[in-house]
Write a structure and sequence with these properties.
heterodimer, A: 303 residues, alpha/beta, 13 strands, 34% helix, B: D-Maltodextrin-Binding Protein, domain 2
Chain lengths: 303, 423
């Protein structure tokens, strides 16, 4: 069962094609990261899913339904532009959004304090929203998003403005939700967040998908040709080995780049014969590098 | 429906709680009381001091001098602080010479008013002529007084010549009268005072003005509520929970509720105040349902127009130019008030009743003016108004959906019209 699916969705603002024939399928129970540089079309895509802006072309289905109206109460959406009623009290705001999301008031009486407790906002329940700090506001915004126990969470840049402690808190809540079988879509341009959370990655640049796959298969496909080692003894011979293209000194470590078909195991054997090996690491490319690589390449292609 | 009510409930609760709202509710009665108080003060100024005014009189009949002096002396006795300096200008060379000299005095500023009484004035064929040069507005009222005083002098002279007694004539002319209004119960009756007539005139105006204040006053609340939602960026969060139509409908329902609250508070306050001052305000109870219908439909129509305006603006300042035509529409019935109340079945009243934004105000005027409007006409106007309110809601829904998410420049007319075309 798919939580969300887009087929060739298009949206243009004037001459700019913000989203260009984008297709993506988000399976239920997964965490899907929408990645891309600023202005790639992440927010536009999310807004189209939420029917806040209408696609010029293409189909969007949520829980297999083309209308979002029936699905609204099953979704929690946190927009990029955060906003709550500034003059209302924290507890009231949360209860109000719960109510318009269709949560019964008896249920809200239980859930509101529960969420405030969970996000460390319990002592602020009777304060006005405008008195909250930016980080607290952000947490309250997340509580508003999740108050209706949604099956699908759509979070636009959920971690921006949070300190590391709160980021971890939010991450653990998101992971917990996935474990309960809920689906999470979130957008970010901070790669290491995506790397720790996502099952799937959609990489968008200039409104087009340039990568859409499981994170694990992306990583295994992007094979590395670099090894990082820490050695004791004379290391000058490494440059002359047949499979090595270049060696870079990185503090006490060496970065060794290998030829296209070279086997890192072969290198290890050679090293063991001649020096003491303290550390040997086959470098898996980080999402960050993949991102920079692919976005750079697609920009070059387009221009 | 549940969501619409929830949105309406919040709109109502959050608005009614604000200080600005409570102040604005209190401001009107305070202002009314203040106006009445100052009007009282102003009325008192009639007897207050005023710089003396100079009057020059040429009496060609040469027989009024005594009468004129008596007449002016009596005036001075009654108004010691408001002197009229009387000068006589004798001119033996005839009317034309006197006139020329008087005009000259006026132009040179030696006198404020010059009066020429014809030779034959006492017989009745001559005229009294009052000349002024560049009169000040303050002199207008005095001109009336001067004319009255001189007329008295002439009339007194005539009485004298005919040997009539002034006082017995006045007695003869006097017929004491009471206008009595009887109630529906056999024994209730009351003598009408002047205040009753004024009240009868003012009650229709009051109801219309109540509607006007409800529209304009709470319209501002509505605008600031939408602008606030836009600027605090809460719209997108709201739209994840409710559809744009539900949000809009909720705001309109909440707004109508606020308007009705305000109007009933003011209305009952004014009614009680009028009763406590002994004014006879009678509103036939069978009017109540009509009033309710017109008020509710009127508020619906105007609230949805306000929502539309608010949704395409980002600041209160931007809303002002769009509010102008709305306010002007409301002002038309206020200007037409007298005419409509005096001729509730006249052409103007009938035509204005069927121009939707004016319908509620004009119909309330006509109904409370106590005219028997054919029920068919009432129903037709209700239908027209209801259709207009629905059309306004339908159009606003289209504008609202797009406008509410627009930031930056306010869209032009052409762009808004394009939104109306979107399905």
């Amino acid at each position: 069962m798919n939580a969300v699916s887009l087929r060739r969705a298009c949206k243009a603002f004037g001459d700019v094609r913000a989203v260009d024939a984008l297709s993506v399928t988000v399976p239920a129970g997964s965490i899907y990261g929408f990645l891309g540089p600023n202005g790639a079309g992440k927010t536009t895509t999310i807004r189209m899913i939420m029917n806040i802006i209408r696609p010029d072309d293409g189909d969007i289905e949520i829980f297999g339904d083309t209308s979002i109206e029936r699905a609204r109460t099953r979704i929690g959406y946190m927009p990029e532009e955060r906003g709550l009623y500034r003059k209302m009290k924290v507890g009231k705001v949360l209860a109000y959004f719960g109510a318009i999301k269709g949560v019964a008031s008896s249920e809200l009486a239980r859930r509101v304090p529960e969420w405030l407790e969970r996000l460390d906002l319990a002592s602020w329940a009777d304060k006005k929203v405008e008195e909250l700090s930016r980080g607290m506001h952000q947490k309250l915004q997340f509580a508003v998003t999740a108050i209706n126990a949604p099956e699908l969470l759509i979070l636009d840049e959920p971690f921006s403005g949070l300190d590391p402690l709160n980021t971890d808190l939010l991450k653990s809540i998101i992971l917990g939700m996935r474990d309960e079988g809920k689906t999470v879509i979130f957008s970010t341009h901070v790669m290491h967040e995506a790397e720790k959370l996502c099952d799937f990655i959609l990489l968008i640049n200039r409104g087009k998908a340039i990568l859409d796959d499981r994170l694990s298969s992306i990583k295994s496909r992007q094979r590395s040709h670099a090894v990082c080692v820490e050695l004791e003894g004379y290391t000058g011979f490494i440059t002359d080995l047949p499979m090595v293209t270049r060696v870079d000194q990185d503090g006490s470590r060496l970065q060794i780049s290998l030829k296209e078909n070279a086997d890192p195991q072969q290198l290890l054997r050679e090293l063991l014969d001649r020096v003491r090996v303290q550390a040997f690491e086959i470098k898996v490319p980080s999402l960050h590098e993949i991102f920079v690589d692919l976005v750079g390449a697609s920009d070059v292609q387009d221009s | 429906m549940y969501k619409i009510l929830k949105v309406a409930q919040r709109e109502y609760a959050e608005t009614v709680k604000t200080k600005a709202f409570i102040l604005s509710i209190l401001a009107l009665p305070v202002m009314v009381v203040a106006v009445i108080f100052f009007a009282g003060l102003l009325a008192d100024t009639r007897g207050s001091a005023r710089p003396p005014i100079k009057v020059t009189v040429t009496d060609l009949s040469q027989e009024l001098s005594d009468e004129i002096n008596t007449s002016f002396e009596k005036y001075h006795d009654r108004n010691p602080k408001r002197q009229i300096l009387l000068q006589e200008l004798d001119e033996p060379n005839g009317a034309d010479a006197a006139e020329a000299q008087g005009k000259n005095k006026l132009r040179q500023g030696q006198t404020d008013v010059y009066v020429l009484l014809d030779e034959s004035i006492v017989e009745g064929s001559g005229k009294m002529r009052l000349y002024t040069y560049k009169p000040k507005p303050a002199h207008d009222e005095m001109l009336g007084t001067i004319e009255y005083l001189l007329r008295e002098a002439v009339v007194n002279r005539r009485y004298e010549l005919h040997q009539l007694d002034r006082e017995s004539l006045a007695k003869l002319r006097n017929v004491p009268t009471d206008r009595v209004e009887i109630g529906s119960a056999g024994d209730t009756e009351r003598v009408q005072s002047k205040a009753d007539a004024i009240t009868r005139m003012m009650v229709p105006f009051f109801f219309m003005y109540l509607l006007f204040l409800g529209i304009v006053g709470t319209g501002q609340q509505m605008l600031s509520s939408i602008i606030d939602e836009k600027s605090s960026r809460v719209i997108e969060v709201l739209l994840s929970a409710v559809s744009p139509f539900q949000l809009m409908a909720g705001k309109i329902v909440g707004q109508v509720g606020i308007s009705l609250t305000v109007v009933s508070l003011w209305g009952s306050g004014a009614y009680l105040a009028a009763r406590s001052r002994g004014l006879n305000v009678e509103i036939p109870p069978e009017m109540a349902p009509y009033f309710a219908v017109y008020f509710i439909l009127g508020f619906l129509l105007f609230s949805s127009i306000m929502v539309g305006i608010g949704s395409i603006c980002n600041t209160i300042k931007e809303t002002q130019s769009l509010m102008m035509p709305v306010i002007l529409t409301c002002v038309v019935p206020m200007v037409a008030w007298m005419n409509v109340v005096r001729h509730p079945d006249g052409m103007m009243a009938k035509v204005l009743s069927f121009i939707p934004p004016m319908t509620p105000m004009v119909m309330i005027l006509r109904l409370s003016a106590g005219s028997d409007i054919w029920i068919g006409e009432v129903l037709a106007s209700v239908l027209v108004l209801a259709a207009a309110a629905l059309a306004a809601i339908w159009l606003t829904a289209k504008v609202f959906r797009t406008g509410i998410l627009m930031y930056g420049k306010r869209p032009g007319v052409r762009e808004v019209v394009r939104w109306l075309g979107q399905k």
